[in-house]
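Exercise 7b. Backbone tokens:
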């Protein structure tokens, strides 16, 4: 219920306002001076304050200023018996939603109250939207507990507030663009623009005018001056994606910007200084490109100041449960679906899959599963066959033992061996992965696998698994 506070030293005015507003369904509170008015405001209960300009204990403007500073979602309308123009101007300047002279007409008060509440609601919504947006871009939204990811977060935090050039490499879908955005939003430049340019998508001539701008008449089709992306990114960050496929001629120009921090518009000889943080990304191995003569060596060293390599998802299976749950929450909310968690077999299957498309592939797969399922817990059946099928046909080569009695077993097609032995390989793989994901903690690994702790111990002994990552097998084994 919308709450209005009537802050006026005169009991008759308070009564008058209460008689007017009470029947309209507002919850009302009253105060005769500034300290008494601040109490309910500080408890965050008040949507609107109607306050007299000459409120004892500090005055209406002082009340307004305090509310604006500490409780910006509460609106204030000021009233005054000596309603001079100066008072009205001072009130509005200080951020009052409205100003009314006393005596007031009932209609006047109602209109002012409606308008002030509407404006406050809009402001609140705006504020919530902005926070939600910031939230999505914060580094805590980049999921990763793997030590390599943790090291990356540390680097990002350490360099965020500098203007250092950052190069992000890694396979497609590993989170390069996401990290570049997070870097911008962690930096002091966050209120400046984040401008993204795909350097692989445009032919050289267009790319140049896109980035540096051009002057009218500099080439056919240049009908007016155009500001380039470097200038548009001034005060913020420019993200040059797919830098590995840019032409040699373009690389020369880019080197100049990096060295001198100036650009020249196409068709213009004047130089324009640019204040931008440059972040570059590529899924190519630049060192090899340099060796092959496809990438300039001088540029390579110039951009290799802070280099971040995003590890492929298959090399950090421990991140898969966290990422899968993160996407599950997001898509369930976005699409209004009931999914809340995964069953242990579903999580195991996700951890076993090879993910050639990395996090993007996982994200798309979870979205599809969440949209299609009406269940609260997503099970194997909710996952597509390429992930849900047993390890023999889908797991990466490294997951099956290459030595020992199981190595000789036929995998996939061909004559099957004894059932027990055939099942041992995927079982071992699932257990080893669960242990790795849980840092060797057997309790958690058992929970992840959906089996009892003692069953896990039994299986560890049976399969001769001696613990992972330097965690010795428990003494009782
Ligand atoms: N660590 C992560 N935490 C949460 N979401 C992630 C993470 N990594 C990637 N994503 C999500 O996965 C998708 C792919 O990531 P992104 O676009 O950043 O990859 P990329 O490396 O830039 O790929 P490409 O080389 O194809 O441009 C995005 O929707 C991104 O939000
Ligand atoms: Mg990208």
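Sequence design result:
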């Amino acid at each position: 219920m919308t709450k209005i506070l009537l802050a006026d030293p005169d009991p008759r005015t308070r009564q008058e306002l209460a008689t007017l507003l009470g029947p309209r369904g507002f919850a009302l509170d009253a105060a005769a001076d500034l300290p008494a008015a601040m109490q309910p405001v500080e408890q965050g209960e008040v949507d609107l304050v109607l306050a007299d300009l000459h409120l004892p204990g500090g005055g209406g403007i002082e009340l307004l200023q305090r509310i604006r500073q500490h409780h910006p979602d509460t609106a204030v309308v000021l009233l005054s018996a000596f309603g001079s123009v100066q008072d009205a101007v001072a009130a509005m300047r200080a951020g009052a939603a409205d100003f009314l002279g006393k005596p007031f007409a009932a209609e006047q008060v109602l209109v002012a109250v409606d308008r002030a509440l509407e404006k406050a609601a809009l402001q609140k919504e705006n504020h919530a939207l902005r926070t939600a947006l910031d939230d999505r871009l914060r580094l805590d939204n980049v999921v990763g507990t793997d030590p390599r990811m943790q090291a990356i977060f540390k680097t990002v935090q350490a360099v965020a507030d500098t203007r250092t050039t950052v190069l992000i490499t890694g396979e497609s879908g590993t989170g390069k663009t996401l990290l570049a955005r997070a870097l911008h939003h962690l930096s002091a430049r966050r209120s400046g623009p984040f401008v993204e340019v795909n350097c692989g998508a445009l032919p050289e001539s267009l790319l140049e005018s896109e980035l540096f701008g051009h002057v009218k008449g500099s080439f056919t089709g240049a009908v007016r001056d155009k500001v380039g992306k470097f200038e548009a990114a001034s005060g913020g960050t420019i993200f040059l994606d797919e830098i590995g496929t840019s032409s040699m001629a373009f690389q020369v120009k880019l080197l100049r910007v990096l060295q001198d921090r100036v650009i020249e518009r196409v068709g213009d000889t004047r130089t324009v200084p640019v204040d931008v943080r440059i972040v570059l990304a590529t899924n190519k191995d630049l060192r090899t490109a340099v060796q092959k003569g496809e990438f300039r060596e001088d540029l390579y060293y110039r951009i290799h100041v802070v280099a971040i390599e995003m590890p492929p998802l298959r090399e950090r299976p421990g991140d898969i449960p966290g990422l899968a749950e993160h996407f599950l929450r997001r898509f369930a909310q976005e699409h209004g679906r009931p999914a809340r968690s995964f069953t242990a077999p579903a999580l195991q299957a996700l951890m076993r899959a090879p993910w050639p498309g990395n996090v993007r592939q996982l994200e798309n797969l979870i979205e599809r599963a969440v949209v299609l399922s009406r269940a609260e817990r997503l099970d194997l059946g909710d996952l597509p066959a390429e992930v849900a099928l047993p390890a023999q046909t889908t797991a990466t080569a490294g997951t099956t033992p290459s030595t020992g009695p199981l190595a000789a077993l036929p995998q996939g097609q061909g004559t099957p061996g004894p059932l027990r032995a055939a099942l041992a390989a995927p079982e071992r793989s699932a257990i080893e992965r669960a242990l790795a994901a849980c840092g060797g903690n057997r309790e958690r690994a058992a929970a992840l696998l959906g089996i009892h702790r003692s069953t896990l111990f039994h299986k560890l002994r049976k399969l001769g698994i001696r613990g992972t990552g330097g965690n010795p097998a428990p003494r009782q084994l």
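Instructor comment: Residues 176-177, 241 surround magnesium ion (ligand 2) (CB under 6 Å). The CA atoms of residues 430 and 461 lie 15 Å apart.
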